[in-house]
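Design request, tokens follow.
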């Protein structure tokens, strides 16, 4: 963990490093909440590691990101080729594996998919995706505090809300949308078992 933090401190600007620590802490808190194996703190450790490394490639030049993908046969879409900042997850997972020897596939996938999500995400993948959005130093986003509470009440509902708000945000900015972001959102909307939180405004959920 020390080696990772040292690397991040060197490669990320101050605000991004602060964000990274925030994601890591929130990921640990969510791992406590959703730990599938209470009594074993391994899940928390894995959440901490994935949180720390999720944006490790964020500051890299776009050309270098594309170069790393090319050299290492990391597949990417034409949309990612024209919007290479979206590749910081895939390249980040590559760095986690090669530079820090992370072999845990779930951690690597959580880093890979943290920006767009994907259908059928694992618990750890969802935790990193959500922690990235709700960590305390994030600039205010509409409904952020409600989503922060929802994250600890109903993880899938939090996923759906974040994806929905991200799509709305990108549309309002006129930014093109990666197909994977839309596909991920669709997979949550079509999720058959869900409770209705449409009128939820924060506070305790009865
Ligand atoms: O790296 P972070 O800033 O912590 O967060 P992130 O990895 O979720 O990246 C966030 C940025 O990615 C944000 O500006 C929105 C953008 N983004 C997410 N999905 C899409 C997208 N941008 C485009 N153009 N299309 C998407 O589908
Ligand atoms: Fe990111
Ligand atoms: Fe992030």
């Amino acid at each position: 963990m020390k080696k990772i933090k040292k690397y991040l401190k060197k490669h990320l600007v101050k605000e991004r490093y602060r964000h990274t620590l925030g994601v890591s802490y929130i990921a640990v808190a969510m791992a406590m909440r959703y730990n599938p194996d209470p009594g074993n703190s391994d899940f928390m450790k894995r959440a901490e590691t994935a949180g720390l490394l999720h944006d490790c490639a964020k500051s890299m030049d776009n050309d270098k990101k594309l170069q790393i993908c090319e050299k290492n046969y990391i597949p990417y879409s034409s949309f990612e080729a024209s919007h290479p900042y979206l590749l910081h997850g895939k390249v980040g997972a590559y760095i986690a594996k090669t530079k820090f020897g992370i072999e845990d596939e779930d951690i690597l996938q959580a880093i890979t998919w943290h920006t767009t999500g994907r259908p059928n995400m694992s618990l750890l993948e969802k935790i990193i995706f959500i922690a990235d959005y709700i960590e305390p130093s994030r600039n205010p986003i509409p409904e952020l505090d409600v989503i922060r509470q929802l994250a600890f009440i109903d993880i899938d509902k939090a996923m759906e809300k974040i994806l929905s708000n991200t799509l709305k945000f990108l549309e309002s900015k006129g930014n093109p949308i990666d197909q994977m972001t839309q596909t991920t959102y669709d997979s949550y909307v079509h999720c058959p078992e869900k409770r209705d939180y449409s009128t939820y405004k924060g506070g305790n959920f009865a």
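Comment from the thread starter after seeing the answer: thanks! Residues 54-55, 58, 88, 114-115 surround fe (iii) ion (ligand 2) (CB under 6 Å).
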